[in-house]
Amino acid sequence: MKKLLLLLFLVSGTLYGQQPEKIYSFAVVKMPVSWYKEQILLWKKEVDKNPKDGLAWYNYYYATRNTLRTDPEDTRTYKEKDKVLEDLVAEMGKVIPDSYEYNLCMWQNHGFDLSYYPYLEKAFALGKGRTEHLDYIMNLGEINRDLKQRDEGARLKNQAGLISPGMLYYNHNVLAGLEPNAILLTTGDNDTYPAWVLQGQGFRKDVTVLNLSLLTIDSYREKVFKELGVPYFPIDWESIGDTAPTCHTRFLNELVINLAGNKKNAPVYVALTAVHQKVISKIEDDLYLTGLAYRYTKKSIDEMAVLKKNFEQVFTLDYIDHCYYQDISETLVPVVNQNYIVPMLKLYDHYKVSGDMTRQNWIRAKVIAVSKGTEAEKEVLNHLD
């Protein structure tokens, strides 16, 4: 008992004087797990002081959510982690059932289960001037194929300063390197929302950007497949079990193969951000690295020619060397930029063999810049040397 009291004293002493801070999605601002755990305690204190404080509840919820999703030492199943959030939201509902925060959390906590849409509708009505729901305006616009709504949500999110300039540059290069009318598979916030922002501003509106998480929604998948002229296939949820569908081998492989059979003959790409070796093992022989995405095709293509064209003539790369802007995701941009490493090293080797010293030195400087300070830096330098 004495040890327990000492632990409580140490924790309260550490937190004394600290102020709770606004919690963002870890896809926008990622903090250490220890920080999120501290914020859980700080925001719980605010909730206890004033149970009617909706903002305190929302940050308490989001700090808990981020901890559950980023703590590598938490070995509980998805269902067990979901139960923690369900209980938290249920407690919120007892004291502030008619609040913006409760209704938004009820929607957030149930993925994309459209039976909970009335909660989101209520949050929309209550949340004028708030920004926490803008992702869902975009998502619903996409799910309903109402691209005007999607673009408006993207515009508002960008206007609110919640879209990283570095991510915009990166996604500009992803889109710029695709063939006309391409289909692009993405996996998360940072390779989807910035792409939609750019399309809302008129850039590469010909590309169909499909997020893997949204594609797990049966009604959406059926709708977008019909548009593209792709045979619909159901997901065997029992075989997926307690793993994320987007990390499931059969789901991604079958998805790519089906999309490639579209009646519009649109070229299919998988963004580098969406590729995991174990997931694409069945289709890797038909994937060609053409920039910041893999082109899937049964026909052989000159991969190096496309790669050279994109890096030499198409991509905007100055932002890698000189970043003259404030970035809300400044710690995450270098992580995403590591996707440049493999294509840049392939180009470096090509220039070295062909004796093009000017371009060899140019791409060498770029790959050193994107790998600096990352776990890959030593391996990159060893390769270059």
Detailed description of the structure:
The protein is mainly alpha-helical. It has 2 domains: 19-132, Serine Threonine Protein Phosphatase 5, Tetratricopeptide repeat (Alpha Horseshoe), CATH 1.25.40; 151-384, no CATH class. It has 19 helices and 5 strands. A 5-stranded mixed beta sheet has the order 2-1-3-5-4, with helices on both faces. Helix 10 (193-200) links the parallel strand 1 (183-186) and strand 2 (208-211). Helix 4 packs antiparallel against helix 5 (100-108) and helix 14 crosses helix 17 (341-354). The longest helix is centred in the N-terminal third of the chain and has 18 residues, at 78-95.
Features:
385 residues, mainly alpha, Serine Threonine Protein Phosphatase 5, Tetratricopeptide repeat, 2 domains, 5-stranded mixed β-sheet, 19 helices, 55% helix, disordered N terminus
- Percent helix: 55-70%
Total number of beta strands: 5
* Main sheet: strands, sense, barrel: 5 strands, mixed
Mean pLDDT, to the nearest integer, reads 91
Look at the helices and sheets and give the structural class.
Answer: mainly alpha
Shape: globular
Query: Span from first to last CA?
Result: 59 Å
Alpha-carbon Rg, integer = 23 Å
Helix/strand order:
HHHHHHHHHEHEHHHEEEHHHHHH
The neighbouring-strand order within the major sheet is 2-1-3-5-4
Q: Can you count the helices? A: 19
Count of separate structural domains = 2
The fraction of residues in strands falls at under 5%
The parts where pLDDT drops under 50 for at least 5 residues are: 1-13
